Amino acid sequence: MTALTPNRIIFNTAKKVYEGELSKSEGINTLVGELNINKGSAQMIIVQIFPKLLDGEQFTRTLSVDLFNSFLKFILEDYGEDRLRNSLSALKMHIDYIKEKGDAKITLRKIYQGYLDNLKTGGTSSLQDEIEQSEIVNQLKDKTKNELASELENSENDTSEKVTINHKSYKRNNKIIALIKILRNFECQICGKYILKKDGLKYVEAAHIIPKHKQGNEHPKNILLLCPNHHKEFDLGNREVINHTEKEIEFKLNGVRYLISLEI
Ligand SMILES: [Zn+2]
Asked: Are 253 and 210 in contact (CB under 8 A)?
């Protein structure tokens, strides 16, 4: 069991109040007692911001950018995409309401836009995984290629389901995919293309050569990075694997032969 982060405890407490499992004052006391949050802030989170965020209504008081980011992530995890849409529209109204043009507003707008874009594209891995992978990429961006390669090796040998990066917990599989994306430059391994997102980051998808439902795992020898078109072709087209080793894969896709390196 990984211990819950403070942001998760805040979220779970506010959620219990929202769902009627705790009274407002019990919720507020939990935040004050367990996390040393001052009473005014606890009240603001539990009575104002959390319910309005979930119900898609405008709120005026603000939270730290980091807490908003966690809330959106947990709303997606616990309540699903429809509820996340509500929350994003509440957040949009809130961002428009904030008058100061500080860094917080800019970062909040980026977070909002990131979630919205992910909702639009859908992608092939789940939205949650996609978001987590982008977050991990962001966490690892200052490391050298060598450091990343050894992190990848360690993550492959690890068997735990979750890993921690800078005190945050992520699925180990998402860390591996994020590392493979960085180390292979976010480029489609068939055509070299990627999608450039508004935030300046590159978008590419991870295809499992042996699908997950056939016990294919997250490992460089089983992952091909593909642009969305080639990913669909790889999954839906006529594919014939000629040779597949640790180092490379040779296959025919709709009659065209490819030889692609799987090394890092
Ligand atoms: Zn491609």
From this structure: no
